[in-house]
Amino acid sequence: MNNGTDFRAILRAGTPIIDVRAPVEFQQGAVPAGVNLPLMNDDERAAIGTCYKRHGADAALKLGHTLVAGEKRQQRLDAWLEAIRRHPDALLCCARGGQRSHISQQWLREAGVDVPLIVGGYKSLRQTAISVTAEYVERSMVLIGGCTGNGKTLLVQSQASGVDLEGLAHHRGSSFGRTLQPQLSQASFENALATTLLQKDATRWVIEDEGHMIGANHLPECLRDRMAQASIAVVEDPFEVRLERLRDEYFTRMHHDFLQAFGEEQGWQEYSDYLHQGLFAIRRRLGLQRFAELTASLDEALLQQQRGASTEVHFSWLRPLLVEYYDPMYRYQLSKKAGMIVFRGSFEDVAAWLAA
Known about the structure:
Elements: H1 7-13, E1 17-19, H2 23-28, E2 34-36, H3 42-55, H4 57-67, H5 70-86, E3 91-93, H6 99-110, H7 121-136, E4 140-145, H8 152-158, E5 162-163, H9 165-169, H10 186-200, E6 204-208, E7 213-214, E8 217-218, H11 221-227, E9 231-235, H12 239-262, H13 264-280, H14 283-286, H15 288-306, H16 315-335, E10 341-345, H17 347-355
Parallel strand pairs: 1-2, 1-3, 4-6, 4-9, 5-6, 9-10
Antiparallel strand pairs: 7-8
């Protein structure tokens, strides 16, 4: 059993963590294997914080035992016991390894279960994640570049040393990039990245050529700096192949996912809103006249799809969007890194080059 002090081993192993911090703290930052089963909810924590400032530690502790007592105390204890039944190797964690995790540990002991604490709490795990990322990104790195639809993410995912930044961010990076999974907080995204680096422990990273932001998450500065110096392999598939990939990803699959999540009627509305929002986000760059034309084309394509037409109807606005906006933008960005390009070829060519 982990003794709660080898933070790298805890992250690498994905050791289950019972995080007893308040929900608001957990949302601000958590590790991938953490489950939030709080000792106190947000309101209770706020009340105790106020009491601590006004009347000191003893009064705050007394109030805590008053607020979390009886049935409420039992419910929280039962939740921890159930988590431990499912994950006997779980560790307890609070913000800094202080009173909350010690109280939780004591209640569990009284119930006949001994659970180790993470010494220094979430703060220790967070500091470890930051230092791991800074250290591991110094290793050799190759970026996978190419215009949208070239399967860069698929290629990264197929590599043992591939780090799928978009997967970690729950976002595909473009204005149409959001997924049905909400994005993580910045700290949680960085913790997930560090955990992935530890688990893969590669000598050379394969990473997609990304901008500084993936949706609402930004890449850690140390990673951005390394990516700016890394070699780039550019995927160049035929335009029609790219269209088919994008059709599958953004229309066929997203339509299916929205219907699965929300049901027929609301799912269709959510899917329609998702496509409209993606186009709306780049309206200024398109110019308002072109934006209006492409929106009309999108509306017509949605109407046809709703009547049973293939998702291919969306090519009417996707083709010009790629030709006029996405491709020139990416080629311009790539031109500034021309000296870093070490290979160009089809998806299969780049995969073979990586293997060699």
